[in-house]
Specification:
CATH architecture of the largest domain: 3-Layer(aba) Sandwich
Number of helices: 15
Distance between the termini: 20 Å
CATH superfamily of the largest domain: CoaB-like
Strand order of the largest sheet: 12-11-8-13-16-17-18-19
Bound molecules: cytidine-5'-monophosphate
CATH topology of the largest domain: Rossmann fold
Radius of gyration: 24 Å
Largest sheet: 8 strands, mixed
Length: 417
């Protein structure tokens, strides 16, 4: 299992099946290599009809493996054993109906399927096929059997336009869904240590409209909240995201509700709050709204010179009044200058269990960027710095810290099943 923050040198084995979606795997491999990972690839015979081994080898910066290598009589140790032991994570994409059937039944007649049986690492599978094929009883039975295996993680398939010009289920997950899941598996070792937890997360920046086109808002993109939602889902939690943004969430993974204003966000969170074990308020909520709203666009010469404002509800402070003893409430504090003291004041005022104080005046960190750094502060006064890292890495750090906190506060109820 990789320590969060350390990716360089971790090993991802990619098994490519024979489907047109194999072209998307090029993007996956390229992104993983750029992140500093070692990537090796196995192509089935039919995969080579869709994608050239040279393309994959060039992207991996390493030779690829095919069935010709599997049957070659020149190894010291069998190739499938070496590759199975080498991998930290095994990604199989596209997972075709035929390979799915073989994996579900424990059959092994080529390098990819033999390597699967010879490995023990977490396996991420991304099925891709025509809708009628996907919906066959036999395929669905195989799919259910495969998912009963503890080390199998799935991403997709989604619904959309397929290469056969039909619209339906069977579309392979996009690289933007596959890559974060693969990285999460490296950090978690495939451990579903949040299984059984219901986690409610807010994301994005709320908008308070003055008329149909003008609003008070902030530059929050929702990326931190989405990273938390993905990381929690990858670790087995049931996740609901309430987002004041337009973030795409993986099909079948995360329940997402879109809101605009602080009042709408409050309504959505209050509705889901009773079922939540943890609430993580990563959203940047506009603190004020215009006192008056005009349903018609105000002409330029009718715009008020001074805008009368009123406070919006403090959502998390309100949730803390509804909180049950087993529930954990975590806030975020985006700060300039000194970050810790103002965050502690917010934690106390809002009745939080912990707050993540993050600077927004460091170039390429915070709002809208893919990087973040923070100090995790608990109500009991612990301060744990989280050094600069990607938002997905930070999400794993934060989840680990909340898990520790929950165990400390309530060791019996909080241990993940
Ligand atoms: O805006 P502020 O720095 O006070 O935000 C700190 C925390 O409080 C964040 O978690 C934010 O989502 C939450 N908040 C809220 N309702 C508000 C303002 C902030 O829940 N009206």
């Amino acid at each position: 299992m990789a320590r969060v923050g350390e990716l360089a040198g971790n090993r991802v084995l990619v098994g490519i099946g024979g489907g047109v979606a194999a072209y998307k795997v090029c993007e996956v491999i390229s992104t993983l290599v750029k992140a500093g990972l070692e990537v090796r690839a196995i192509l089935t015979d039919s995969a080579q009809q869709f994608i050239a081994p040279l393309t994959i080898a060039t992207l991996c910066r390493h030779r690829v493996y095919t069935d010709a290598d599997f049957w070659a009589a020149d190894h010291v140790r069998p190739l499938h054993i070496q590759l199975g032991e080498w991998a930290d994570v095994f990604l199989i994409a596209p997972l075709t109906a035929h390979t799915l059937g073989k994996l579900a039944l424990g059959l092994a007649d080529n390098l990819l399927t033999n390597t699967f049986l010879a490995s023990t690492c977490p396996v991420l599978v991304a099925p891709a096929m025509n809708t009628t094929m996907w919906e066959q009883l036999s395929v669905q039975q195989n799919w259910r059997s495969l998912q009963r295996m503890e080390r199998i993680h799935r991403v997709g398939p989604g619904t959309g336009l397929l290469a056969c010009d039909t619209v339906g289920a069977g579309r392979m997950a996009e690289p933007e869904e596959i890559v974060p899941y693969g990285l999460s598996l490296l950090w978690s070792g495939g451990d579903r240590n949040l299984a059984g937890k219901q986690i409610l997360i807010s994301a994005g920046g709320t908008r308070e409209y003055l008329d149909p086109v003008r609003f008070i808002g902030n530059p929050a993109s929702g990326k931190m909240g989405l990273a938390l939602a993905l990381a929690a889902w990858h670790r087995g939690a049931t996740v609901q995201l309430v987002q004041a943004a337009s973030l795409a969430v993986p099909a079948g993974g995360i329940l997402s509700t879109t809101v605009v204003s602080a009042a709408q966000m409050q309504d959505a969170l209050i509705q889901s709050f009773p079922q939540a074990d943890w609430v993580i308020m990563a959203a940047a909520v506009a603190d004020v709204r215009p006192q008056h709203y005009s349903a018609a666009k105000l002409p330029k010469d009718k715009l008020p010179v001074a805008l009368p404002l009123e406070a919006v509800p403090d959502i998390v402070q309100h949730l803390s009044t509804l909180k049950q003893p087993h529930q954990r409430l975590i806030g975020f504090a985006a700060q300039t200058g000194e970050i810790v003291a103002p965050a502690i004041a917010k934690l106390q005022r809002k009745g939080l269990d912990a707050i993540v104080a993050n600077p927004i005046d460091i170039p390429d960190h915070g709002f809208g960027s893919d990087q973040n750094q923070a100090v995790f502060i608990t109500a009991s006064g612990n301060q744990i710095p989280i050094p600069s890292c990607t938002k997905l890495q930070m999400a794993h750090h934060v989840l680990d810290l909340i898990l520790d906190l929950a165990l400390t506060l309530d060791p019996h109820r909080s241990s993940a099943s």
